[in-house]
Amino acid sequence: MMDEPITILGAGASGLSSAIALARNGLNVEVIEKNSHAGGRFIRDFQGLRNFGNNKVDPISEFEKLGIHLKPYKKIMRIVRYSHSQNFEIISNKNPIYYLVLRGKDKNSIDSQLASYATKQGVYINYNFNIKNNNVNIVATGPSRVDSLAYGGIYNDVNIDDAGHVILDKKYSPNGYFYVLPGAKKGEAEVINTAFDPTVKMNHLKILYNKGIKEINILKGLLNGATRKTIQAGIGCCTLLNEPYKNNKYYVGEAAGFQDVTAGFGIRYAINSGYLAAQSILTGKDYNDQISKKFGSQLEFEHKRSVNYKNLTNDDLDKLFHSIDERFGHELTIEEYESLRGDI
After folding, report:
1. Burial call 174-211: b when 16+ CB within 10 Å, e when fewer
2. Pick from 106, 139, 289, 330: CA 20 to 30 A from residue 274's CA?
3. Fold classified for 148-236
4. Which helix (H) or strand (E) holds 274?
């Protein structure tokens, strides 16, 4: 075992995935977290782990092959997508469309699960402490800049089943979308508005959110009689570093810009990049090259998809949704939807 510890800055999904892989192979690992709990960016948050568009790789199974066993709180088999005046459903009868996971302080969050695995492997997690990243081996500090914003809340007494809802209306969500996810408890749901537009500030997104929940019919129906329990707000980074390994440091997760630039999915990127950084330390494999092989084509596809979406107006989205209905009907299989992902 090495006497000098590998130091990781950040105890989120990417940093803890690195720590687990390194400690399992006998290295001395210290994780430094400025907050009081793992996944310190989040107090309690619901997030989707996409089970399509991953080259037919189930992410939960993929993580298990890396030695990381995570328990989602729900499987989503149905998604309803809305434009300004149209909608269609995506239904899977076999595999989940999304796994839903908790983030943050909750004992069942994936951050808490990863922290528990890490400490069992002998990793020391130093909470409520911070240092500059020039003194660490792996930088896992989350977003390095603001490319996207999210604002909303968790509600109780919501009229929701086990479906996810995605609303594409640029009047309220500049180059982004509203989403509604069922929570871990009955009648609980998270309603979030997102903007993938660097000119939009959080105060403006908050105004758009409040307008949206009052004016968008599907949100009015879901939230009729509901009570807002918490306010949720956050940022995202999808600006890729040219070299995620530089100056003898490995940048993982959103610290390297690994996130879906259109939809904001980042958990799979976080865990895989953390693991690949650890493998580079253990084996000497080139981290930049491994990241390119693992994610290069998917990141490029997501960038092109983002450009396409930014060029669409609300009228364009309505026409596109109408054409989908004419081609497939109101209900699409997940395979039919995947064939459209370059468009919507």
Report:
1. bbbbbbbbbbbeeebbbbbbbbbbeebeeeebbebbee
2. 106
3. D-Amino Acid Oxidase; Chain A, domain 2 (3.30.9)
4. helix 267-283
- Given this model, what pLDDT does residue 342 score? 63
DSSP state of 53: S
Q: Give yes or no for a contact between 324 and 289, defined as CB atoms under 8 angstroms apart.
A: no
Domain range 6-73+103-144+238-305, CATH class: alpha beta
Question: How far is residue 195's CA from residue 176's CA, in Å, rounded to a whole number?
Answer: 4
Q: Amino acid identity of 54?
A: N
- In Å, what is the CA distance from 54 to each residue of 26, 76, 265, 338? 31, 16, 11, 10
Q: Are 244 and 292 in contact (CB under 8 A)?
A: no
Residue with tokens 């995620």: 244
Are 294 and 62 a contacting pair, CB within 8 Å?
no
| Cα–Cα nearest to 20, from 125, 177, 131 | 125
Distance separating alpha carbons of residues 164 and 187, to the nearest angstrom:
13
**Cα separation values, 157 from 73, 86, 102, 161, Å:** 19, 26, 19, 12
pLDDT in tens, 146-175: 999 999 999 999 999 999 999 999 999 999
Alpha helices (H) in 54-198, listed in sequence order: 59-65, 110-120
Q: Residue ranges per domain, the chain?
A: 6-73+103-144+238-305, 148-236
Structure tokens at 160: 């929701």
Residue carrying structure tokens 């580079």: 280
Mean pLDDT of the chain: 95
